[in-house]
Every structure is written in C-alpha cells, then in structure tokens.
Design brief:
Blueprint: E1 4-7, H1 13-24, H2 31-39, E2 43-49, E3 55-64, E4 67-75, H3 84-98, E5 103-109, H4 113-121, E6 124-130, E7 141-146, H5 152-167
Parallel strand pairs: 4-5
Antiparallel strand pairs: 1-2, 2-3, 3-4, 5-7, 6-7
C-alpha cells in the first residue's frame, strides 16, 4: 500500500476527529482544537493517506525556538504496525531539520508500549514522568526527549531507519 504524508488541511479535520475519538475515546481533541492548531503559526500537522485519500493516521507538533514538541500522533487501529507512525514521525523530523530545530520532546502514556517502542527506536529517551498527566484515568506520562538531532549519532540513526523504511 502506497502511503503519502502531506500537510493537514481544514477539510481533513472531520476525519481526523473521528480517528481521534476512535483512538482516545471520550477524552479526544475537538474539531475546534484542530482548527485552532491549523491556524497556529507554531503548529505543524500532517496526515497519512492511501491512494484513495483515506485517512490512515495523523501527527502534529509545535516548533518553539530550537525545540519541537510532538502534540499528537495516531494511526487508525486497522492500519497499525504497517510503518505509518514511523512515516509520520519522519515528516516531523524532516521539518525539524528544515526549521533548524535541535531537540524534539513529547509526553506518552506509560502504558502505551507500542508508542514508547517507536520513540525509543528513533532515539528518544525517557527523562522523567508527569504524575497523573492524563485526565481520563490519572495515568502518568513519560517525558521523552531526543539528543540534539544535528549530532552525528542521531543523524546516523535517522538515516539508517529512513533507508530501511524506504526499502520495504
């Protein structure tokens, strides 16, 4: 299946919110939240779509000075474990390089082993927790951070993963 990563547009928000609700239940972002993000000059949001333009996943981050903060990343349950989250993460990292960002950070549920594994594979390290971060169940969040993405160690890992992903 060919997957295209492109910038999120206003006409995507309806389907993004449906996927958001499917992924996160009652405690999901609203349409208004996504529309506000698309108007936010610091925000960068992406959609993963197939040949029929069906939404498979989405991701977003903020660029603040020399740091990016990943705000959301979700893949439709029927399309998980197909490399879509990886491709969305590549889009975020690519834009970070374009904007001269040095560090990328995020919070992730401690129970979200699949997401944690993805981030660790991509060079993120846990640097602490935010206690009772998630309002729906008071679950703690891991705070994850990359080293400087311009360092050779990170760039080598990124290039290796990117080449492996493209070869599939």
């Amino acid at each position: 299946m060919a997957i295209k990563i492109r910038l999120m547009q206003k006409q995507d928000v309806e389907n993004v919110v449906k996927l958001e609700e499917l992924s996160y239940g009652q405690h999901h972002w609203s349409k208004e939240s996504f529309f506000n993000e698309l108007e936010n000059n610091l925000a960068h949001y992406y959609c993963a779509v197939n040949e029929e333009s069906t939404l498979l996943g989405y991701a977003g981050c903020w660029h603040i000075f020399d740091e990016a903060h990943i705000t959301t990343l979700s893949v439709h349950p029927e399309h998980r474990r197909q490399g879509i989250a990886q491709k969305l993460l590549f889009a975020i990292i690519d834009d970070c390089y374009k904007d001269k960002i040095k560090y990328i950070t995020l919070e992730v549920r401690e129970s979200n082993i699949a997401a944690i594994s993805l981030y660790e594979k991509n060079g993120f390290k846990s640097i602490g927790t935010r206690k009772k971060y998630y309002q729906d169940n008071n679950e703690d969040a891991l705070i994850m951070f990359t080293e400087n993405i311009w360092y050779e160690k990170f760039k080598s890992l990124y290039n290796e993963l990117h080449n492996t992903c493209e070869a599939k």
